[in-house]
């Protein structure tokens, strides 16, 4: 009966959206704009500048996801991500109700709602790895051209066709800035420094600005670019170790969840105790909670090797 009522409530909400011609995407975007565009008092603005509070918990988790979407130029998909999270939240609730396990409702619903955000964080590791590889190629060819002609604009123009996105878009904006907006090259270099979240790239830009003041410093650029090569070599050597926790986690989850149906065939009394008693339902809920906590820890561990200054 509870499942039928939940399905009826979901249908009622869906019908209201259809009758009122409302889009879930627009609703979420409008709500986010309402909370984000709240006017701040002068006191709040001063405190915001002076005291930077570190975000914690779910707020930090969502902020990290938004940063990743911005980095991959997919910020417009955040509304889709929220809707998918809501669907999984409802699905987790329905699954818990179907098992007559009220204790598992908050665990399974919240855990499944966070799965899309965990997926974004996990795929960000592959994006960063690809970005570092492309950045190594781009900085290497541009640096070689700059050492030859001592003109960064000419060096970028010579190699822009051999650079792939997203690094290519950054250097194209640099050329547009210097040719069409402001001829001050140093300002244009400072502008592109924040467009790629990579410490080696920022160090390379700072070194390039110093080289424009003193040409004798141009040979310091090659060692900076070499750091990206070192990161790639170390990353290749440690790749197996980095993804070993993911493999072990998947194996253990399969074994853990596979024991539940196996228990039905081996000892039905144990199975009934696990599924139909209050203690068994509590154990199942704790198990699912441990799986989600472990998943979050595994995703944090599976990050590419990066140079930190």
UniProtKB/TrEMBL annotation:
<keyword id="KW-0472">Membrane</keyword>
<feature type="transmembrane region" description="Helical">
    <location>
        <begin position="103"/>
        <end position="120"/>
    </location>
</feature>
<feature type="transmembrane region" description="Helical">
    <location>
        <begin position="6"/>
        <end position="28"/>
    </location>
</feature>
<feature type="transmembrane region" description="Helical">
    <location>
        <begin position="278"/>
        <end position="299"/>
    </location>
</feature>
<keyword id="KW-1133">Transmembrane helix</keyword>
<feature type="transmembrane region" description="Helical">
    <location>
        <begin position="78"/>
        <end position="97"/>
    </location>
</feature>
<feature type="transmembrane region" description="Helical">
    <location>
        <begin position="249"/>
        <end position="266"/>
    </location>
</feature>
<keyword id="KW-0812">Transmembrane</keyword>
<protein>
    <recommendedName>
        <fullName>Flp pilus assembly protein TadB</fullName>
    </recommendedName>
</protein>
